[in-house]
Amino acid sequence: MCSPARDLEGTGYVAWGGSTVVDPNGEVVVKAGAGEETVVVDLAPTVIEEVRRGIPVGGQRRFDVYADVARAPAQEERDE
Asked: Which domain covers residue 26, as residue numbers?
């Protein structure tokens, strides 16, 4: 499946509008209309951090199952 904005027929980019900004709690902050529009939103870093603390994904990572993708491979691994 392809995004509706990616025209498979090769006629170009088709924008549908209706972009939405949602806060970390899932509340819609602002929704753009169907036409061309620019929306500006002030982010609340304290709210973002509070929500992230409530979702402890860092402590739930399974390094025995998934590699640590945050670390760059060692030089000898890159040379192979």
From this structure: 1-60
Q: Is the dihedral of CA 63, 48, 22, 3 positive or negative?
A: negative
pLDDT, averaged across the chain:
76
Q: Is residue 73 part of a domain?
A: no
| Residue 74 included in any domain | no
pLDDT (tens digit, 9 = 90+) per residue, 28-52? 999 998 888 888 999 889 988 998 8
- Domains contained in the chain, number: 1
- Residue 76's pLDDT band (cuts 50, 70, 90): low
Q: Are 34 and 18 in contact (CB under 8 A)?
A: yes
